[in-house]
Description:
Elements: E1 6-10, E2 15-20, H1 23-35, E3 40-45, E4 51-56
Antiparallel strand pairs: 1-2, 2-4, 3-4
Amino acid sequence: MFKLETMIYASEDGTSSVFTLNPALQKQLxxxxxxxxxxxxxxxxxxxxxxxxxxxxxxxAIQPVRGTDxxx
Length: 72
């Protein structure tokens, strides 16, 4: 198994840059971008399958990881 990393970089302007290799999270963020382009935009896809999104801070919520959610 391997880790599906996600990195979040907060900016002073209230937006966050989200890079993720996690296909399930990519699907959620793609849906958010399609429904609310003023809140979330897909910015770039990397060679290794990672995708970068720009998200307004109010739309981003971080929840603790439960032991059953771990893939590694």
